[in-house]
Amino acid sequence: MGKKFKLCSKRKVILIVGSIIVSISAVISTINIRYGYSLNNYENYRERNSSNITITEMMNKNLAKIEKGPSSIDNKIVYITVDDGPSRYTDEIIDILEKYNAKATFFLLENNMKRYPDKVNNIINNGNKAGFHGVSHDIHELYKNGASARKEFEVNQDTFFNITGETSKLIRLPYGSKPYTPCEVYNDLINCGYRIWDWNIDTQDWKLNPNQIIENVKINSENKDEIIVLIHEKQQTVECLGEILDYLSNQGYEFKTIDQNQIPQNFWSNNLYK
């Protein structure tokens, strides 16, 4: 009886130990698949971090990573884009952006840059990005001939450089790149290296009140993982910008500025999210 009991106990111990080993192996396999760990790079990991680290400690750290969920790469993205500046509202817009740890991309008019050079510098010095919105803001002037649009943006470029010492290839065509821009003008700007950006949320803040603007953003951002929000330097926009930023932040959006090396999103290339 005693021998049988000992045999049963040993078998139970073996089964328990075996189960533990299988469980540990499964966890390690999960970590290997998800994070690219192997026994070899585990040894390297130990050498880099601590000579006393154990497999259990390593697994606990990586399981904690799994529990945290997706990284910032998986977050939803919003580009706040501001047209028609700089203006008397520019500094206030920048202050609101700072409050919500957000940055924006400002598309500037040439005459306004000359009128408010300090505000142009304030845009850049606060970590925002700048592009150009033209000189005339008149499609009849802008598209008068094949080279007229390019010449306007060259003037933008010169004025911006004289104020900041920097250059930019980001542009937003007045009223968007469609339907007014002739094909030859669009191709000419692309061949000159300009990056043309449109939007997929038009807040219509130039004609709506603050409550309508906020509702517009909420409705049109539904089910979109990447949004380009068009706003203007208007009093009503300033009044509701904080609430817009707060809403988008709570919806999981990460605020980003447009980089000059990004693939442009515009109505011609048809790569805007619907």
UniProtKB/TrEMBL annotation:
<dbReference type="Pfam" id="PF01522">
    <property type="entry name" value="Polysacc_deac_1"/>
</dbReference>
<dbReference type="InterPro" id="IPR011330">
    <property type="entry name" value="Glyco_hydro/deAcase_b/a-brl"/>
</dbReference>
<feature type="domain" description="NodB homology">
    <location>
        <begin position="76"/>
        <end position="256"/>
    </location>
</feature>
<keyword id="KW-0812">Transmembrane</keyword>
<keyword id="KW-1133">Transmembrane helix</keyword>
<keyword id="KW-0472">Membrane</keyword>
<dbReference type="GO" id="GO:0005975">
    <property type="term" value="P:carbohydrate metabolic process"/>
</dbReference>
<feature type="transmembrane region" description="Helical">
    <location>
        <begin position="12"/>
        <end position="31"/>
    </location>
</feature>
<protein>
    <submittedName>
        <fullName>Polysaccharide deacetylase</fullName>
    </submittedName>
</protein>
<dbReference type="InterPro" id="IPR002509">
    <property type="entry name" value="NODB_dom"/>
</dbReference>
<dbReference type="InterPro" id="IPR050248">
    <property type="entry name" value="Polysacc_deacetylase_ArnD"/>
</dbReference>
<dbReference type="GO" id="GO:0016810">
    <property type="term" value="F:hydrolase activity, acting on carbon-nitrogen (but not peptide) bonds"/>
</dbReference>
